[in-house]
Design a protein that fits this description.
The complex is a heterotrimer of chains A (about 290), B (about 240) and C (about 290). By secondary structure, chain A is mainly α. Chain A has helices at about 1-30, 40-55, 60-85, 95-115, 125-130, 145-165, 170-180, 180-185, 190-215, 220-240, 245-265, 270-285; strands spanning about 125, 135-140, 140-145, 220. In chain A, helix 2 (about 40-55) packs parallel to helix 4 (about 95-115), helix 6 (about 145-165) runs antiparallel to helix 9 and helix 7 crosses helix 9 (about 190-215). Chain A is globular and about 60 Å long. Classes of the chains: A mainly alpha (about 290), B alpha/beta (about 240), C mainly alpha (about 290).
């Protein structure tokens, strides 16, 4: 029972990371009309940037956070013209070209990380920042400060994003474009600049996710981006591409599933279980649980 | 009647979609305080004309002038801010979003007077206030048309363009919608509307143009057009 | 035969075959990355059969093809008609699961891999010639089959599907069946390639079947030209040879180089270097020359 509760807590923080990643991915899909296969790799790259900043500034957390967010936003905005150039039609998602281009970007980022940082070995974040201090213990249940922080930030970030989407002007514009790009044009919503806004916003999200991941995992490696990417992409298919509330539900579910598997099964099998379940759901419902938007 | 200022002036407008010429040399004008109707069958080019005036399409030739300034080629959001707006064909409201969200989208470019405009829209359309948090999908056709007009009002426009308001609506509802348009006009809004329903729209308009396959074939006051035998034969069936 | 030349010719042949295997389903917009998993599964299977059970290579090879085809067929029952994105994710997930299973299976060497596989012919030199002969006969056979397919009614229907699925259906194309057929063919070829790949090196290791391979094949297809089968033939030796020309320090960055080339080609020459028009013009030129001679 205690293992269960402990793992559900873990699962919620892990799940909120997946939700944030799926939401950033969906934002780009809905408002910028691109499939960004390498969004999680951009996030991992920001983790590395934060790590470098930490090393050179004597573990200054605010600077590292700033650097992570800055790096994500910068990469996103820099890749925007690339995506724009290859999209045939600004009003529809051009799956083939944007997906392949973003895969190429992912290849580049992952390999740069393997060669350019720490000789390709995993990097670890300073222990005091990761927060290994147990805030409280109750039998087998312990809440580490790192977990608490990541859970809190995760919940705040997810609520923040959904608040943005459902209660603010830019959020309305994103949702309008998501539902009907042509209708949005007719209301006078500028598709191009709103698209750019979504690059920036998912960049900011990306930086936050990088910080969260650092808090939660305490390490990063070049392969981390790919692994997380494939799970996040699977989540987005299952939830339905572009389905924001769906992404919330499925992302949390996956986090809890993985955490439970980690709690009861050895080693790399928890990863495999996650993938087997994801694969199973996708095979049975190739268009997602709630229907495909595209 | 004293001559009033020309709000919208379209000169020799030509618009093409690839090789298809949607409009070939259309000229019309809308004066302040008027209700002007564009009559035409499906495919005549009415929606293209309104969309081009708004700034969605860039014309191949010709010009659109609004309040004395050339606006053809300018992006739609600029023109919305300048006082021109469109309630699109098929309502163009976002079915998955709430009534309030749709209205707020109308004010997307002019958030300064949002509260005042919202109050005014609610006065005009109390049912929109009742249902402000409902998902638009649950509204009836007539209610959605009111929402579309309400949304257009949110941008504090001077000229409202309405594309086929009667489309898909029951006759009683159509009457209501036209009554609303007449009342709006009395309050000072200038209205340019496109319609297939020639009779009802001409009955409440001041002037009209007949559009056929991308060209204006007839123009005149509403009475003249109502009495014209060609118009009667083609669009009124009398 | 000098060893470097052997490896160059052999690897190039594998690259051509695998890229063709990926190219064919892409005719209907399916990026069938399951093929890399097929390589791994059939490869390890054959290794185990030969080394563990003493089966002859010449029996293990057709089994490898069959295994690939079978898996491809079963999966295609679910994703024969799925959206592009889903096919990609299914492929990736399968690769993960396959790698995890192999990692944890002692019988096939787990993370150590299998070494010292027997020669397929009497002497090392004969072994190399045999492998090369086998590979290039496969290249001819598969190339011939693909060529016939493209110039058949079915092949033309396939290119209609790429452009517009609904349009193709209205022409009477059975998309599901076509998708399944192409996926099965591609998985079969991949299975055989996996087997030969291992015997080429006389070992199997997880490092052979990574996502780098996916990146490499994608680069070959999109740089060469995804609209015709000849793009692969040109790009495979070119891209592989390119990295052999670099000094070793640069060569270790080859994934970044491939990624950069991929992105550059997508932006600058979206259809790749060998475009349909080029092939058409060449065919016309060749047939007019033939007429002159006659």
């Amino acid at each position: 029972m205690e293992v269960l509760v402990a793992q559900v807590i873990n699962g919620l923080s892990l799940g909120s990371i997946y939700v944030l990643l799926v939401t950033g991915f969906n934002l780009l899909l809905l408002a910028a009309m691109i499939i960004h296969f390498a969004y999680p790799q951009v996030v991992v790259f920001s983790m590395y940037i934060a790590w470098v900043v930490l090393r050179y500034t004597g573990n200054s957390v605010p600077l590292a956070v700033l650097a992570a967010v800055g790096a994500s936003v910068a990469i996103n905005l820099a890749s925007a013209p690339l995506f724009q150039k290859i999209m045939k039609n600004r009003e529809e998602v051009d799956i083939n070209s944007t997906m392949v281009v973003s895969m190429g970007i992912g290849m580049i980022i992952t390999d740069v990380l393997s060669h350019g940082f720490n000789k390709g070995l995993p990097i670890s974040f300073p222990r005091q920042l990761v927060g290994d201090v147990a805030l409280f213990r109750f039998g087998l249940i312990s809440l580490l400060s790192g977990q608490a922080a990541s859970l809190a930030v995760g919940v705040l970030a997810v609520s923040g994003v959904f608040l943005l989407l459902y209660k603010t002007r830019p959020g309305r514009a994103f949702r309008a474009i998501a539902e009907d790009p042509n209708g949005a044009r007719l209301v006078g919503i500028p598709l191009l600049s709103t698209g750019l806004q979504s690059y920036a916003l998912s960049g900011i999200l990306g930086g936050l996710i990088a910080v969260l991941l650092a808090l939660m995992l305490g390490y990063a490696s070049p392969g981390l981006g790919e692994q997380v990417a494939h799970k996040v992409l699977a989540v987005s298919i299952i939830a339905g591409l572009g389905n924001l509330p769906g992404g919330l539900v499925v992302g949390l579910a996956l986090g809890i599933l993985e955490a439970l598997a980690q709690g009861y099964l050895p080693g790399s099998w928890s990863n495999a279980i996650a993938f087997i379940v994801l694969l199973g759901v996708i095979l049975v419902k190739p268009r997602g649980l709630f229907g495909l938007k595209l | 009647m004293a001559p009033s200022e020309v709000l919208l002036s379209v000169q020799d407008l030509a618009v093409s979609y690839g090789h298809i010429n949607a409009l070939s040399g259309v000229s019309l004008e809308v004066r302040r305080g008027e209700i002007v109707v564009l009559i035409g069958a499906n495919g005549a080019g009415k929606s293209t004309l309104l969309a081009t005036c708004l700034g969605i399409n860039v014309p191949r030739a010709g010009s659109v002038t609004f309040r004395g300034k050339l606006i053809s080629g300018l992006p739609a959001d600029r023109n919305v801010r300048a006082g021109l707006c469109l309630a699109p064909e098929g309502r163009g409201v976002f079915a998955a979003m709430s009534v309030l969200d749709n209205l707020l989208l109308g004010a997307h470019h002019n958030l300064r007077n949002v509260d005042r405009n919202l109050k005014r829209v609610y006065e005009w359309f109390p049912l929109l206030q009742e249902r402000k948090n409902q998902v638009t999908r649950t509204l009836s056709g007539g209610e959605r048309q009111m929402l579309a007009i309400g949304r257009a009002l949110m941008s504090s426009p001077e000229l409202i363009m309405v594309d086929e308001p009667s489309l898909g609506l029951a006759p009683i509802v159509v009457n209501d919608i036209f009554q609303i348009l007449v009342r709006l006009n009395r309050e000072g809004y200038t209205i340019l509307l496109s319609e297939q329903n020639a009779y009802k729209s001409l009955k409440c308009a001041h002037r009209g143009y007949v559009l056929e396959t991308g060209k204006v074939t007839l123009s005149g006051t509403a009475q003249e057009l109502l009495a014209d035998p060609a118009v009667r034969a083609a669009y009124i069936g009398a | 035969m000098p060893l470097p030349l052997y490896y160059f010719l052999a690897i190039t042949a594998i690259n051509i075959l695998m890229s063709w295997a990926l190219y064919l389903p892409y005719r209907v917009a399916h990026l069938h990355f399951l093929t890399v998993a097929n390589m791994a599964i059939s490869g390890y299977l054959s290794g185990w059969l030969v080394q563990g059970l003493g089966v002859s290579f010449w029996a293990a090879l057709p089994l490898g093809f069959a295994a690939g085809g079978l898996i491809g067929w079963v999966i295609s029952l679910f994703i024969g008609e799925a959206p592009t994105f889903t096919v990609v994710i299914v492929g990736f997930t399968f690769i993960y699961i396959t790698r995890t299973v192999i990692e944890n299976t002692k019988a096939v060497g787990a993370t150590m891999g299998m070494f010292g596989l027997p020669l397929v012919a009497g002497s090392p030199a004969l072994h190399r010639w045999t492998i090369l002969a086998l590979l290039y006969s496969l290249v001819l056979v598969v190339g011939f089959l693909i060529h016939r397919f493209e110039h058949s009614r079915l092949g033309r229907a396939a290119s209609a599907v790429f452009v517009d699925k609904d349009l193709a259906t209205s022409f009477g194309v059975d998309i599901a069946k076509l998708g399944r057929l192409l996926q099965v063919f591609s998985s079969t070829v991949a299975g055989g390639c996996g087997v030969i790949y291992g015997f080429l090196y006389r070992s199997f290791h997880l490092d052979f079947f990574t996502f780098h391979l996916v990146g490499l094949f994608m680069t070959i297809i999109f740089v060469g030209g995804y609209a015709t089968m000849w793009g692969v033939v040109v790009a495979a030796p070119a891209l592989y040879g390119l990295t052999l020309l670099f000094p070793p320090e640069v060569a270790s960055w080859r994934i970044v180089i491939y990624g950069a080339i991929l992105v550059a080609v997508l932006v600058l020459k979206p259809e790749g270097f060998v475009t349909r028009r080029l092939v058409l013009n060449l065919e016309r030129l060749l047939s007019s020359q033939r007429k002159k001679i006659q």
